[in-house]
Structures are given as C-alpha cells and as structure tokens.
Amino acid sequence: MSLNRSIRWRGIDPTSIEHCHIISTDRDTRIRGTIITPDYGLQYRIKLDDREHVRTVKLERTDGAVLELFSDGAGNWSDDRAEPLPALANCVDIDIWPTPLTNSLPLWRCQWAEEQPQRFAMAWIDADEMAVARSEQIYTRIDQTHFRFQSADFERILEVDADMIELNYPGLFERIA
C-alpha cells in the first residue's frame, strides 16, 4: 500500500472533529491524528510494519492522560513500562474510540471476498477512559465500497473509498474532507 493523504471526519454522536494524516510506504505506515471532542482533545500516533501489523500506538489527551502500547506484530503486547498485556494475546489490530480510521487497519491487511466474514481479535482502546481491552470483531465485505462491521451487539454498514478508508460510519462519523 502506498498512501500520503489527509482525511477529516465529523463525529455525529457525540459531536467531534478529526483530522488525520497517513503516510504509507513499502517499509511502514505512519498515522497521526487529532480529535477534538466536547470533553477533551486527543492526539494519536500509530505505526504499522511492512505487513500492516500494528507495532506502536500512542494516545495523548489534552488533560495530560497518556496511553502507549507496543506490539511485536504477532499479537503480543506490552505497555510503556514493558509490562506484558496477556489479555491482548493474538490481537494484531487496534480499534480506537473515537476515530473511524482504525476500522481500516484490518481492511488494509487482508484479502477480501464478498460475503465471506473474517474475525479479528482487536485491542480496543477507549480514549474516554484511556483504557484498553480485547474486542472480538467481524468484518464482511458486501461490495467494493461497503463492509458490515459487527462487535458484540453492535452492527453497522461502513462505506469506504478506494483506499478502504471510511467515508460514512452511520450514526457516528462522516467524512468531510
């Protein structure tokens, strides 16, 4: 994958605005984003390796809260003190609330056939609480521009562009630039 682009979303509920920039080369992918919510500002950085596996993620809120995680790319995680996080075993991807961008990570990494669901163990990061937990998620390609996203009792049809980046996440986010 080769990308060098900026994207903006508007959060619908709750109201937010996000700007992120993705630079992807044959060597790695680096993502930087800023989100302004009613309760805080958040900057995040994500680094993926050449196989599109998450290696580092760092979230910093304007109130000073910081969360930093490291992965070996094979599903073994540690925190910023090098303490292992066994609850995240076999999680290759992350899903950060409140950004739609991280839904693209498994889309970029996998081969897709229509109506063939794929299951993922995700390191789900809640920036409201600055906490991380395991989340089982299912993505199913419906057609070239739509994926069904399922997690626990939550389901949405995500609309994506040609780079598999979210255009519309019904009820939560919409692309504005």
How would you explain this protein's 3D organization?
- This protein has one domain (3-175).
- It is built from 1 helix and 14 strands; from the N terminus they run E-E-E-E-E-E-E-E-H-E-E-E-E-E-E.
- Strand 10 and strand 11 (146-151) form a beta hairpin.
- The protein has 177 residues and is mainly β.
Descriptive key words:
177 residues; mainly beta; globular
TL;DR of this structure?
The chain has 1 helix and 14 strands. With 177 residues, it is mainly β. It has one domain.
Helices and strands, in N-to-C order?
EEEEEEEEHEEEEEE
First and last CA, distance: 21 Å
Task: Report helical residue fraction.
Answer: under 10%
- Summed over residues and divided by their number, the pLDDT gives a mean of 97
Integer count of domains:
1
**Regions with pLDDT < 50 over 5+ consecutive residues?**
none
Specify the structural class: mainly beta
Principal-axes shape call: globular
Strand content is over 45%
How do the strands and helices of this protein lay out in sequence?
Elements: E1 3-11, E2 16-24, E3 29-36, E4 41-48, E5 54-61, E6 66-71, E7 77-79, E8 93-97, H1 104-109, E9 118-126, E10 131-143, E11 146-151, E12 154-160, E13 166-169, E14 173-175
Parallel strand pairs: 8-9
Antiparallel strand pairs: 1-2, 1-14, 2-3, 3-4, 4-5, 5-6, 6-7, 9-10, 10-11, 11-12, 12-13, 13-14
